[in-house]
Amino acid sequence: HRSLMAPYLLQWESMREAKRRGYRHYDLGGVAVNTGKKAAWAGITRFKQGFGGKLHEFGKTYDVVFKGWLYQLYSARQKLKSML
User: Is pTM, for the whole model, over 0.85?
Assistant: First the structure.
């Protein structure tokens, strides 16, 4: 049922609730700006920009690792995935 566009309604209602509670800002999260992942993030970026608003850059993100061996496994999987 993609035609119902549920993600739009969900975000819109979340913004309305935030406004009702007195919040002045609503963060939709990350978009592709100057990264190598522009193609992969194109749809997400377009969706978020469709709400208007302003783009703020907060700097880089970092991973906080709690289980080193599991993170190494994850990193290896990501490298393999990028080669395909």
Answer: no
Summarised one tens digit per residue, pLDDT across range 11-59 is 999 999 999 999 999 988 888 776 666 677 888 888 888 888 888 888 7
- Farthest-apart Cα atoms in the chain, separation: 47
Burial class (CB in 10 A: 0-12, 13-18, 19+), 77: exposed
Determine the number of helices (DSSP H) and then strands (DSSP E) in the chain.
3, 0
Four-CA torsion 19, 21, 23, 25, nearest 10 degrees:
-40
DSSP 55: -
In a 13 Å sphere around the CA of 84, the CA atoms on its Cβ side amount to 6
- For the ranges 6-10, 39-43, 48-52, 66-70, the maximum mean pLDDT occurs at 66-70
